[in-house]
């Protein structure tokens, strides 16, 4: 049997990690891996997470399964965090998933079951796992223009033109905030136009919100998702707790399905539980319990929000420092977009050849499409990156 397997393409980010590890240079800079790092290069455990875990360890008396959908308290807490009061609770079905990736996978499985002929539309570019999972599931896929390589902003005219070709019943995947991999977000006015376009076409939105709190703040980052949720009869929302709670290895995510009414919600809830059973049965609980503990305790939540704000503001400061340093070196505003982008990532909009030059000559590691992780920088490495960008004529 195993002799029938064929080699699969290597994951580009994992390959980049291997090259970085083998590089003997002491001044190398890792901007490839999509994990938040502090100024010391560590991915810290948040204070509120440590305290929540201490309480769970002291109080938990059983490791029995929580249920196919996970702990209902987790679903309630995440619905409030992401959606607030934008949608009635009796319209929202939810299941815990192994990370945001698990939520995306289950959303696509639900689409395949409910609308097998639907085409799933993705922004160009998007997170590589989106098209990878869709292809693996054998689903129809199309792209809409998103990133303008010249302005390093959103190609909004191209986006609207492509969405005008969406068919009724198609699914359009939108990034809730902090677009990955570009860092370029739609404005509130642009999102309103997108919503109106999708409503006129009879499309169903699928929102991937993996970075709430990393852009403009918890509520501001959720605003687009809430607006979408309140505008359609049906919406799918995949949310991750990996970044804003810093619990990457706990694999904590949730899939929410907004239904037209409570009756439809009950059917959706039953279907989501069925899909969990087919895929991994009962979802992991520890990370979900940590998140629930934090969100349901006023003091822990306040401390978590304060530390998250420190993280967010730190990334914004790095963005501004890099934009300012490049302006000083080039005497132009060509890189001002770096301060305007939001979240962990920005896309420089340069060629793979120049990205390779940055790696070979300067020890700057980023993905070949020029996506770089801003959180991989610190105040000392920003000038090194800026000079390398200038030297490589990016």
Please outline the helices and strands:
Elements: H1 12-22, E1 29-30, H2 47-59, H3 72-83, E2 92-98, H4 99-114, E3 119-124, H5 129-136, E4 140-145, E5 147-148, E6 153-154, H6 156-163, E7 171-175, H7 188-201, E8 204-209, H8 218-229, E9 235-240, E10 252-258, H9 262-279, H10 286-295, H11 298-330, H12 337-340, E11 345-347, H13 352-362, E12 364-365, E13 371-373, H14 381-391
Parallel strand pairs: 1-12, 3-4, 3-7, 7-8, 8-9
Antiparallel strand pairs: 2-10, 5-6, 9-10, 11-13
What does this structure look like?
This protein is α/β, with parallel strands linked by helices and about 400 residues long. It folds into two domains: about 10-45 and about 300-390, Alpha-Beta Complex (Aspartate Aminotransferase, domain 1); about 65-295, Aspartate Aminotransferase, domain 2. Helices cover about 45% and strands about 15% of the residues. It has 14 helices and 13 strands. The chain has helices at about 10-20, 45-60, 70-85, 100-115, 130-135, 155-165, 190-200, 220-230, 260-280, 285-295, 300-330, 335-340, 350-360, 380-390; strands at about 30, 90-100, 120-125, 140-145, 145-150, 155, 170-175, 205-210, 235-240, 250-260, 345, 365, 370-375. Strands 2-10-9-8-7-3-4 form a seven-stranded mixed sheet, with helices on both faces. Helix 7 links the parallel strand 7 and strand 8 (about 205-210). Helix 2 (about 45-60) packs across helix 10 (about 285-295), helix 2 (about 45-60) packs antiparallel against helix 11 (about 300-330) and helix 11 packs parallel to helix 14. The chain is globular, with a radius of gyration of 21 Å. The model has no long low-confidence stretch (mean pLDDT about 95).
